[in-house]
Every structure is written in C-alpha cells, then in structure tokens.
Amino acid sequence: MANDLEKEAAARASLRFVQEGNVVGLGTGSTAAYAVRFLAERVRSGLKIRGIPTSSSTRELAASLGIPLITFDDVQQIDVTIDGADEFDPELQLIKGGGGALLREKIVASASRQLVIVADASKQVQVLGKFPLPVEVVPFAQALVAKRIAALGATPKLRRDAGGNPFVTDEGHHILDCGFGAIPDPPALARALDAMPGVVEHGLFINLASVVLLGRGGEVREIRRA
C-alpha cells in the first residue's frame, strides 16, 4: 500500500515535465500506468499532446482513456518520456524490463529529449543487480545465449507466462531473467551483452535517464545524475 502511494505521487509529479503540444513517450508497468492515467485527466481538461506507447498494454490503456496516439511513422523525436524502472543507482543507470517491454522502452528512450523515471523507494539501490536482469533473445538462439550469459557468471532463467509457456514479447521474442548479483560495472556488462549474436536487447539503460522522481513516504524527491 505504501509503495502504491509512492508510485502514485511520483507519477503525478512527472506531469510537470509535459508541455502543451508535446510528443510524449508512454512507459510500461505499474508506476507508468499511473502517469498515463493522470496524463489522460489533463488531456480531458484540454491539454493537447500526442503519445507513443512502449507496449501493446500501454497502447490499449492510453487509447481507452482518450490519449491521441501516433507512431514513429509520424515523428522520430519525442519531447519527454515518462517510464518506470525496476532499479536505479546513484548514476541513474537503470534495470528495466520487468514488464517485458524493454526493447520498445529503450527505442522510445533513445528517441527522447528527456527520460523521466518515476519510482517508489524500493527501486533505489547503491549497486544494480538485486533485480534479475532481463535479456530479450531470439528464440532460435535462446539456449546458446543462455550458455554464454552463464559464462559471464549469471544464472539465466527463461521467463514464462501464467500458463507455463515461454513469455513472448510484443516483437515475438523470449526473455531470459539473469541473476548476476551485484553488477559493479553496468556499462561493461551492457557492452558484453550487446556483442552477443541472438541478444535483441537487454534491460541495462545506461546514460538515458534525465531525472528520477522518487516517491518516499509522503514526499517526491527529484534526483539527477551527478
């Protein structure tokens, strides 16, 4: 319950980064969903924006709430994206992908002038790695990639859906949730994963976040990279 209140407060605070006429990236996950709902309230009150969602689930939510939606066929630059994170460290390096949308989330983040992360207090860590790192893989290469990731010291586990079948992303890939433990050098690990054939994307977001809005108790703290 406390986490929900912190998520809600951080999401509401993120709306100050959205201006009239903006193209807004709409994140995926429970905290981002609060932001989408609050943004829809502003739209119903007259705010004119256009949204680019990071997942099918977010697209359905935003459309149901009346937020006008576009795609990268219409624009290639996003003014601000509001999204959540599974973890963030003091350098605002992130682990994302718990909701299974890491590929589209990273594409949207990379096209954004500002990436605003909304999070509750449980997401703040000194060193990334308590949360298993999601790695999106081509199904054909899944076993091969899992072996290579294990050689880096991780324990990869295939993500499954509620029915016990492999979880399938919006782009038709599988996800390996990789328990690395502490990740002392996230950029180095990101480079190693980027170099693996069969890895489509991973959940390390390096130098992408502009600011984190952290809900803690009854307050929202704004954290920027040192």
Using brief descriptors, characterize the structure shown:
4-stranded antiparallel beta sheet, alpha/beta, Alpha-Beta Plaits, 6-stranded mixed beta sheet, 28% helix, 2 domains, 13 strands, 226 residues
In short:
By secondary structure, the protein is an alpha/beta fold. The chain has helices at residues 2-13, 30-44, 56-64, 102-110, 142-150, 186-194, and strands spanning 23-26, 50-53, 78-83, 87-88, 94-95, 112-120, 133-137, 155-158, 174-179, 199-202, 204-205, 211-216, 219-224.
Question: Could you walk me through the main structural features you see in this protein, from its secondary elements to its overall organization?
Answer:
- With 226 residues, this protein is an alpha/beta fold.
- Helix content is 28%, strand content 27%.
- It is built from 6 helices and 13 strands.
- The strands form 3 sheets. It has a 6-stranded mixed sheet with strand order 2-1-3-6-12-13. A 4-stranded antiparallel sheet has the order 8-9-7-10.
- Strand 1, helix 2 and strand 2 (50-53) form a beta-alpha-beta unit.
- Helix 1 (2-13) packs across helix 2.
- The longest helix has 15 residues, at 30-44.
- The model has no long low-confidence stretch (mean pLDDT 97).
Q: What share of the residues lie within helices?
A: 25-40%
- Note the main sheet: 6 strands, mixed
Structural category is alpha/beta
The coarse overall form would be globular
